[in-house]
Request: fold
Amino acid sequence: MEAFQLLSRGGVKFDKTRFKDDVRLFNKEKGNSAKRKEAVKYDSGELPAELDFFKYAKGGPAVKRKAGENAEAHDGKRRRVDEDEEDEDDEEDELGREGSDAESSSAQPTQRHRVTAKGSNVPGPADSFEALKERYHLSSRLLTNLASNGFKHPTGIQSHGVPILLEGRDLAAISPTGTGKTLAYTLPVLQALGAPAASAKSTAGAGVRAVILAPTRELAHQIHNEFLRMAEGRKWRIVLFSKATAATLADKNARDKVDVIISTPLRLVASLQNGTLDLSNVRHLVLDEADRMLDTEFLEQVQEVVAACTHPSIQKAVFSATLPAGAEKLAMEMLRDPIRIVVGLKDTPLPLIAQSLTYVADESSKLPTLLTYLSQPYNPPVLIFVSSQPRATSLAEELIINGVPNVDCLHAGMTKKEREDAVTRMRRGESWVMVSTEVMARGMDFKGVREVINYDFPTSVQSYIHRIGRTGRAGREGKAVTYFTNEDAPFLKSIANVILQSGSTVPEWIMKLPKPSKMKRKAMGKVQRGDFVDKARKIGRNDAIKKRDMIAGSKRRKEKAARNGESSEQLENRGGDR
DNA sequence: AAAAAAC
Reply:
C-alpha cells in the first residue's frame, strides 16, 4: 500500500489550460509561431522540462531512444497518415496537430480511408473547413479556433460527418480510433448554438440545448476540453457535469444559462431524478462510445436521458470506433431517418498500429515477461491494460518494487483526485508506465503513447480495438503487444483475425486453431491448463494442436495416472495434460 | 463471454 501511495503523489491540479498546452508541446509544430511561443512560455515557466519525456528517456536506465532521435522519427512518420480521426474521444489534439503535421502531406485525408454512407439524401463531404463555411456558414470564430488549434484539414469522419450534422440529420458514425470523432460533433453542436443562452439575444428558450454522454469521467473531461478550445472567444456555458457542478445548477436561473452539458449517464440521471435538471430544451444529443453506452449496464440510464430530451426537433448522433450489430440496432432505433457512415473498415484497428501476440504460459509468467521487457529499451509512455482494479494496483506495486521508474496507475476505484492526477501526469509525459483497467480503454487521447501492452487478455474484440487504439492516434505510429496464456486460447483466434485484418501478422499456427466456440467449450469443461501451446514448443505446433483435442479428457487421465503413481513428466511426454 | 464503469 505504501508503494501504491507513491502512485498518487505529485498532486498536480488538473488544469485545462495547461493541459491544452501540454498537448501542443508534444506536437512540436513547426511553422506556427504563435503556438510555439506559448509552448516556450510554458516550457520555461510552469511546465517542468520533463514534460518532454524524451529527455527522461535519454537519462533513464531502460529507455532506448535518444531525445532528438525519437522525436524526429516520430514526426517523420506522422506525416504519412494524418487524416484519420481519433476515436470517439480524441481530443482535437491529435487532429489538430494533425493539421500541422499534414503540412508536408499532400494527401487528402478523406481519400485515405474509404468512407461508406447509407441513408436518405446524404449530404456530400466537405473537403475543407472553408468549404463548411461556404456551404453552411460555419462561423468565422469556429474557423479561427480550428486554425489556432492547428486543425488544417478535416479528417474523413469530419468531412463527411460535419455536413450531415449541420444539416440537422441524425447520424451513426463509425470511424477508427484516433481519427477525430470528437471534433466531428463538437463543431456542428457549437455552430448550432448561435447566441449563448445567457445572452439577451438568445431565442433558444430556457435550458440546456446540447448533451454529450460519455462512459467515463476521464473521457467526459477530455471532451469538455475539446469543447472549450473550439468555443474560445464565445460566451457559451459548457459544463462538465459532476457532483459539484450539478449542485450549482440546482438553481433554475443558473441552469437556464447553460448551453452544453458533457456528462456520464448516471450523473445525469441522478439530477433528473432529483428534479434539478430539465432536458426538455435539448436539441442535440450525442452518444460518444455509443456501443459502450448501449451496453446493458448503461442502456437503461441512457434511455432515461433520451426520454427526458423531449424537444420535438432533437437531433441525435452516435459515434464509436466499433459498433457491433446489437448496439447498432439499438442505436438505429433511437435515431430518426439516420445516416450511417463508416470510415475505413468497421471493427478494424488502424493499420499503423503494429500489433503482436506474445505467449506467456500462465499467470505467473506474465510479470517476469513484462519486467524483462521493461528492462530493455522501450518507448515511454507505455500503457498497460489489466482486467481488474486490484490487478492494476498490484501490478503497479510490483513494477515499483522492481525498480521500474515513473509507474502510474489508474482505475475507477481510486478517488477523483487520484484519477485526475494520474491523467495529468500522463498528459505531461511524467508517466513512463501507466497501468490501467478498461476505464482507459476508450476515447482517451494521449498523444505520446507509443506502446500498449495487454497484460491481461481483452475480453472482447471491441475491447481489444479500443485498448490498442490508445496508440497510433492522429496518424502516428503505434505498437501493441498482447500477452496470452493457455487459458486465453479460446479467445485467441478472434483477436488474431482482427490483427490480420488490420495488416499485422500472426503466427500461422494460431490461425489453425479450431473455432472459438469449440475451444471455449473445452476450456470451460474442466481443462485446467489447456497447455497445448506450451507443448507446442516442445513437440511442434501442429502436433500440439491435434493433441489439444485430447486435453479435455486429460484430467481424467491425469487423475488415473496419479492413482497409478505415474509422474506428470511421463504424462506430458505422452502428450496428455498435466 | 466477462469485467469495468456509472453515483
Observations:
- The longest helix of chain A spans residues 217-231.
